[in-house]
Design goal:
alpha/beta; Rossmann fold; SIR2/SIRT2 'Small Domain'; 2 domains; 6-stranded parallel β-sheet; 3-stranded antiparallel β-sheet; binds nicotinamide-adenine-dinucleotide; binds zinc ion
Length: 243
């Protein structure tokens, strides 16, 4: 921990890369730890364009359930710690695979959302995008302009990432000298290229996760534990290094 904090405090262009695990302690389940009702489905059966084409009602019921969980969720100490690191001038940005918007809610200012945001919808007919403030009511929701079927404006398996977000992530990763990887299995591509690109460009990689991840092979440091316990301790250590 001390060593990671020292390297982080000394870095010039540190970036965080986060996944579902960072929100687990906010009560938003990861895909693998999927809750109750939805346990009998694999995410690949719900979060794909094919699934939506086959059964938009089913996919929307799942997203409505997730929207309700996220609506009730607050940022946890891990999100707050990352926002604090940005305020301290230590962290340049958070690149996230999460769609829950909790980094921004925690006060992080530069957030790159690789997989979109669950609080936006897009019309499958006219292509317009709209923000939504609350979980959807009637299922499936319809476009207020053309009446077309709306879909969540998130990236499903097999779909390309939003170009702007991807390019920003690439540029951050190529110039990062430290990458803090938190709560991601590292198994979802192309997102998982980001820490690998950072590593190739010389960044020190620190992985925070209670389990094994597919990025452990590039980790210079591995801190095993829950994000909401580890990150606040890390911030305290970083503060000590800065004074
Ligand atoms: P994943 O479910 O594949 O992996 C989650 C990782 O988090 C695992 O390595 C697990 O060990 C770790 N983890 C579990 N509890 C943790 C904790 N308390 N602290 C730290 N780590 C913890 O998630 P992924 O790698 O993000 O990839 C799956 C895809 O699922 C992503 O594309 C993402 O968009 C999507 N997703 C997003 C959310 C969200 O927005 N909150 C939730 C579920 C899935
Ligand atoms: Zn429309």
């Amino acid at each position: 921990m001390e060593e990671v904090a020292r390297a982080l405090a000394a870095s010039k262009s540190a970036v965080a890369f986060t996944g579902a695990g960072v929100s687990a302690e906010s009560g938003v389940p990861t895909f693998r730890g999927a809750g109750g009702l939805w346990e009998r489905y694999r995410p690949e059966e719900l979060a794909t364009p094919e699934a939506f084409e086959r059964d938009p009602d089913l996919v929307w019921r799942w997203y409505k359930w997730r929207q309700e969980l996220i609506y009730a969720a607050d940022p946890n100490p891990a999100h707050l710690a990352l926002a604090e690191l940005e305020r301290l001038g230590v962290l340049k940005a958070v690149i996230t695979q999460n769609v829950d918007g909790l980094h921004r809610k925690a006060g992080s200012r530069r957030v790159v959302e690789l997989h979109g945001n669950i609080w936006r919808v897009r019309c499958t007919s006219c292509g317009r995008e709209f923000p939504v403030e609350k979980p959807v009511g009637e299922i499936p929701p319809r476009c207020p302009i053309c009446g077309g079927l709306l879909r969540p404006a998130v990236v499903w398996f097999g779909e390309p990432l939003p170009r702007g977000a991807w390019e920003e992530a690439l540029s951050l990763a190529s110039s990062a000298d430290f990458m803090l990887v938190v709560g991601t299995s590292g198994a979802v591509y192309p997102a998982a290229h980001i820490p690998r690109i950072a590593k190739r460009n010389g960044a020190v990689i620190a992985v925070v996760d209670p389990g094994e991840t597919a990025l452990d092979d590039i980790a210079d440091f591995k801190i095993r534990g829950k994000a909401a316990e580890i990150l606040p301790r890390l911030v305290a250590e970083v503060r000590r290094c800065l004074t």
